[in-house]
From TrEMBL:
Its cofactor is heme b. It catalyses: Fe(2+)(in) = Fe(2+)(out); 4 Fe(2+) + O2 + 4 H(+) = 4 Fe(3+) + 2 H2O. InterPro entries: Bacterioferritin (IPR002024), Ferritin-like (IPR012347), Ferritin-like_diiron (IPR009040), Ferritin-like_SF (IPR009078), Ferritin_DPS_dom (IPR008331). The gene is bfr. One of its GO terms (biological process) is iron ion transport. Fe cation 1 binds at residues 18, 51, 54, 127. One of its GO terms (molecular function) is heme binding. GO terms for cellular component: cytosol. The keyword Lipid metabolism does not apply. Keywords: Heme, Iron, Iron storage, Metal-binding. Fe cation 2 binds at residues 51, 94, 127, 130. It comes from the Bacteria. This is Bacterioferritin. Residues 1-145 form the Ferritin-like diiron domain.
């Protein structure tokens, strides 16, 4: 089924964001693991895997719409040198992603591609959950203090 080119371009832009998030989360996961924060590392890895599933769904949809998935493009990857920076960088990335998905959902509706819109709405729910999880981590760091928070992440 030949899809709307503007929507295909938007899906490729979302794909670039997902691929960027995968890389950013995996680096943060490995840094946390290296520092001995196993629970935090698992948290980052779990989020990265969810982003991989999003990328897969976007690729499938782009192909269905007879587009070409662009997997060589990434956005700027923001690696934090310390845990609070990592969480803040990931939170900022997720906020941008939520905005991008909301805009893509409107576009999909405008071009009457409701199947794509529904898929994007499902992914958006995951992204909203990621924002919530990262805000919980930010709150815990603030309320517990960084040393106490980190002592719970072994």
């Amino acid at each position: 089924m030949k899809g709307n080119q503007e929507l295909i371009d938007t899906l490729n832009s979302l794909l670039a964001g997902e691929l960027t998030a995968i890389n950013q989360y995996m680096v943060h996961a490995e840094m946390s693991e290296d520092w001995g924060y196993t629970r935090l590392s698992e948290n980052f890895k779990k989020r990265s895997i969810t982003e991989m599933k999003h990328a897969e769904r976007l690729i499938e949809r782009i192909l269905f719409l007879e587009g070409t998935p662009i997997v060589s493009r990434l956005e700027e990857i923001c690696i934090g040198a310390e845990i609070p920076q990592q969480v803040d960088n990931d939170h900022a990335k997720e906020l941008d992603t939520v905005k991008d998905y909301n805009e893509a959902i409107v576009l999909a509706g405008n071009v009457l591609d409701y199947a794509t819109r529904d898929m994007l709405m499902e992914i958006l729910q995951d992204e909203d959950r990621h924002v919530d999880e990262l805000e919980e981590l930010q709150d815990q760091i603030e309320q517990m203090s960084l040393p106490t928070f980190l002592s719970t992440q072994n």
